[in-house]
């Protein structure tokens, strides 16, 4: 695994968490929807009571999965932070933290660090060369 691949894991896990949060919100919305239809057609008095129960069970399962993913993200970010601290150059550390822990854009990083974007790209390449992927993941 390259340094960039290792560092990017947190970003992709964060995106998956965001996606699951959206799905969870949509599931919750379905449990609160109730519509009344007014017409003269005969109505069946049996309703699917299991539908709401199934949706609630899906919500509980998704919340558990989300909790596990959030725990994994916190652990991964802690591990990445430890590895970034091993980089000797403090500017490289700042750049790596902004990009891979805070998920900031290149423009934001360039502005925050007071460099033009081309210098940030060059510094990023050097920072990745100085970053050590943990043993067993290389």
* Distance between the amino and carboxyl termini: 5 Å
From the spread of the alpha carbons, the general shape counts as elongated
Helix content: over 70%
What does the largest sheet look like? none
As residue ranges, the low-confidence spans are: none
Mean pLDDT: 88
Structural class: mainly alpha
Radius of gyration from CA coordinates? 23 Å
Provide a count of the helices.
5
Instruction: List the secondary-structure elements in sequence, H or E.
Output: HHHHH
Strand fraction:
under 5%
Strand elements, count: 0
- How many domains make up the 3D coordinates? 1
What does this protein look like?
The chain is an all-alpha fold. The protein has one domain. It is built from five helices and no strands. Helix 2 packs antiparallel against helix 3 and helix 4 packs across helix 5.
Lay out the secondary structure.
Blueprint: H1 3-32, H2 49-85, H3 90-100, H4 106-113, H5 117-130
Descriptors for this entry?
138 residues; mainly alpha
Provide a concise account of the structure shown.
By secondary structure, the protein is an all-alpha fold. The protein has helices at 3-32, 49-85, 90-100, 106-113, 117-130. It is elongated.
